Amino acid sequence: MARVVIVSARIGAGHDGAARELDRWFSGRGAHVVRADFLDLLPGRLGELLCGAYHQQLNTAPRSWDWLLAALGTPALAGAARRFAGLATPRLRELLGQDTDVVVSTYPLATHAVARLRRSNELTAPLVVYLTDPSVHRLCVSPDATLTVAPNETAARQAKALGAGRTLVSRPLVAPAFRPATGITERLRLRLAFGLPHDRPLALVVAGSWGVGQIEQTADDLLATGLVEPVVVCGRNEALAEKLRKTGHRHVFGWVDRMPELIRACDVVVQNAGGLTTSEALATGLPVLTYRCLPGHGRANAAVLHNDGIVPWVHSPSELTEALEWLLRRPVKAAG
Fold first, then answer.
1. What is the CATH number of the domain that holds 204?
2. pLDDT band, residue 336 (cuts 50/70/90)
3. What is the domain extent for residue 73?
4. How far is CA 277 from CA 13, 226, 298, 325, in A?
5. Alpha carbon 55 to chain centroid, angstroms
6. Residue at a domain's end among 169, 198, 224
7. How many CB atoms lie within 10 A of CB 269?
8. CA atoms within 13 A on the CB side of 321
9. Is beta strand 229-233 parallel, antiparallel or unpaired with respect to 252-253?
10. Is the dihedral of CA 235, 238, 244, 249 positive or negative?
11. pTM score over 0.85
12. CA distance 11 to 29
């Protein structure tokens, strides 16, 4: 039985979501899968501090993420980030042992920690880099990877330009529960279960597991179109959920365990980052819009999805109205 180690990170839900589905894929083919969180491999409280700093930055100074990502794309700071990743190698070395057959990374810093062990010949098992975003940053790629798996042709080209070796394009893995509704009866039943209105189109607003971004403004803009009723998922951001309820939004959720069903209950998804939830919504057969997207990776992802004709990037309230009118008439088919 092959031993597969998947290294992810609990920074948002996208990296862990990809790791979960990779676990399902490998396990279904008879492999013994071990999953690890890169943040737990760092010494002391460094992982907790790194996660907290990123979360705080997106909440309080989101525009600085544009600057930081650009800076991390320079050779000097990219090198510093790779050296930082090396702090995880002692625990990573212990985790991998001598009997690992394949290592899969869904998180950039984990990629560079594993790559360091390959360069020093302490690891002979192949390294597979699984890219979780439609766009590719320099830190997402390592020339020491045996294989880089990209979610689209644009990401594959970007990865190769940044030094990736063998690259494969494969549509993003999503849980089987993300499927199109069987018909109007299922959709109405789900709306009743979630306490949603049955007599108007619903726009599902998602902002990742942390509920970051201009979510209140997005919900207000959607309501102002007069075309849809916003249904807002705030993830673990309970403060945001409470604020939205106090300002009069009627359909506000915190963390949702039944996300496939909630998506199927709605008519369109409005997102701001272009990662896992976008893939899940497309697999469910719903049209998706990018609106008021996050700086940094959010904008980079939005550009790729828009230019590839997958998800329109809407830049203003007037464009939002036009896009909704068009999408509600022409829903997309399930991806794949």
1. 3.40.50.2000
2. very low
3. 3-169
4. 9, 25, 12, 22
5. 15
6. 169
7. 26
8. 8
9. parallel
10. positive
11. yes
12. 28
